[in-house]
Hints:
Naphthalene 1,2-dioxygenase Alpha Subunit, Chain A, domain 1, binds FE2/S2 (inorganic) cluster, binds fe (ii) ion, 7 helices, 19 strands, globular, alpha+beta, single chain, about 375 residues, Rieske Iron-sulfur Protein, about 30% strand, seven-stranded antiparallel β-sheet
Amino acid sequence: MAELLGGHSLAARIFEHIDNKTTDLGDACWSEPVKNYRSESRLEEELERGFRQRAIPFCPSVALPEPGSYVAREAGGTPLLAIRGRDGNARVFRNACRHRGAQVASGTGRQSAFACRYHGWTYGLDGSLKTVPHEHGFPQIIKEKCGLVPVNAAEQGGFVFVTQMPPEPVADLPDIPELLRDGLQLLTVNEQVINANWKVLAESFIEGYHIRSTHRDTFYPVQYDNLNVVEYFGRNSRVTYPFRNIEKLRNKVPTKAEMEGALTHVYHLFPNIMIATFPHRIVMVALEAVSVSKTRQTTYVMSDPQTLGQDPEREKQATDFVDAGNAEDREVVESIQRGLKSGANEFFEFGLFEGAIVHFHKNLQAILEGGE
Length: 372
Ligand code: FES
Ligand SMILES: [Fe+2]
């Protein structure tokens, strides 16, 4: 299992950086060609090799709390539908009716069956085709062969993983820590389309070099500028953003809860999933390319029901705080996207403070070049 710093050693590393005014440094810089953010053929390769051929978290398990719960969204350019079955298993299907291809569900919710809106073909929670209105009009079809088409799905670490290209066995799920613990509750799911390439957006989550400049009145007053612990596990990374209130944990062995209240972790699960931890909240973000210049960001906000509602005022402040920071990031990434067309840069230069981004591009390049 992935080796990441535990509470005590993580706190020690952070205090060392605070005292020395330093941050974790990457071991190399990286020049990424700007054309890689604009090329349709490059995006198609990224989706094929980086997304569809890999096991990637599709949604948190808690987004499917009971039989009939479902999540429909696109992943790697494919419309998919995850459903919790009556047997408790999560299954994932290609979200296209077997008659003429309309989607049989959208968004999230709970249903006892999935009726296609176009002509009403209806599927069970296990994907099987149950009813065809006026069935005598289809003497040629064998209903048993016309269920929704499944993709490989497996649950681990609080996620429903999907692999679109068979056969990737369950054993090949990425080695990631238990990020979404049992007992979490899904609070909200929201979706926004952002006018930026998916990689520009991904990059904005995994460096703390922009905190003072971009988040002057939001994150910067409570966090440090350019002070991060950056760790790698497989193709993934974890960037730790300490809060200034971590000072009160100096000279003591912090408990897990104390550490959680004193920092944000952003886990980047290669290539397009971010898990961000906040006091009282854990968030899963899925970034899906709509085109080279548009990305759909789906955000699943979860909380521990035991602490939920204890301090509504503080919870609202926490949500507003994160939303304000997100809006600032959005402005910047959309401005980068406009800048791509300026012709000013042939390459984007990532420096030693941007090690997690370098790791991301290195791994993406390795995959596109055929490495596993
Ligand atoms: S396309 Fe679904 S019932 Fe016709
Ligand atoms: Fe940011």
